[in-house]
Write a structure and sequence with these properties.
The chain is globular. Helix 6 links the parallel strand 4 and strand 5. It folds into 2 domains: 183 residues, 3-Layer(aba) Sandwich (Rossmann fold); 66 residues. The chain contains 8 helices and 11 strands. By secondary structure, the protein is of the alpha/beta class.
């Protein structure tokens, strides 16, 4: 991934996702970190949406990301935390497919779908091997991807849809639109564009765009990837409320450990 990726989305990321009412993963990951304890490594930490609450909960956590724009915002936010919280945080700039640090971790998380920005089997396996490499012998890896709705994935190409909106400045509103550009069923990816429009009294005064590409997984495919990375499942869920992973599931959430 490009180290300069997400330069536009980074500016809007925290405000956008604080406005997303159906984003309910945070309690799951914070509770898991409290249960397992630190140190924690979060791969694909972004601006710290999940990382910072875990640090505030008293747990040592390290973040890894390849986006310089995202990490710049995270580092700025860390500076506004108390000294105790700052001392629990370390930030690493690097590619999750290749990163090799010196520390081992009780818990490694890949929250909010960074695995869906791995587009080839080689990259997907490499990311999981990075996690396995950094796990303590009894450590746990936790991550989530969406359970694919194939009808939804293949529909709406070329259509522009309003996804989120939030107040920016007094009298200004930002709206994020999503336009799917293409679907690659062979490689199980889709390409899209995020469109950020700022409105002042319902008049559009600025527009910024950023491309998006995501992969999607089937359950057997993930199981094969786990074997490639010498990982085995210990728990799996279909939602962050820990409901079964079945035909109704909208998420695929896994807890894994190293194969001994």
């Amino acid at each position: 991934m490009d180290l300069n990726s997400y330069t536009t989305s980074a500016k809007y990321y925290d405000e956008a996702y604080s406005a997303k009412s159906d984003l309910v993963d945070l309690p799951f990951y914070v509770d898991l970190a409290k249960k397992i304890g630190g140190p924690v490594l979060e791969m694909g930490c972004g601006t710290g949406r999940v990382l910072l609450p875990i640090a505030r909960a008293g747990i040592e956590i390290h973040g890894l990301d390849s986006s310089m724009a995202m990490l710049k915002i995270l580092r700025n936010q860390v500076q506004h935390e108390s000294g105790e919280v700052q001392n629990r945080i370390a930030v690493h700039e690097g590619d999750m497919r290749q990163f090799r640090g010196k520390q081992k971790y009780k818990l490694i998380t890949i929250p909010f779908r960074p695995m869906q920005h791995m587009y080839t089997v080689a990259d997907q396996a490499s990311a999981l091997k990075t996690a396995a490499f950094h796990l303590q012998d009894d450590g746990i890896l936790a991550f989530d991807v969406f359970s694919p709705n194939f009808q939804l994935i293949e529909s709406g190409v070329g259509e522009e849809k309003l996804e989120l909106e939030w107040p920016s400045q007094p009298g200004r509103t930002v709206r994020r639109y999503f336009r799917k550009e293409s679907v690659d069923k062979i490689n199980q990816t889709f390409s899209a564009t995020f469109i950020y429009r700022t409105y002042e009294r319902e008049i559009c005064v600025s527009e910024e765009t950023e491309p998006l590409k995501m992969s999607y997984y089937t359950y057997p495919q993930l199981k094969a990837l786990f074997q490639l990375a010498d990982l085995q499942t210990i728990e799996e869920y279909g939602s962050f409320k820990k409901t079964p992973l079945n035909n109704e599931a909208k998420e695929m959430i896994f807890l894994l450990k190293k194969t001994m």
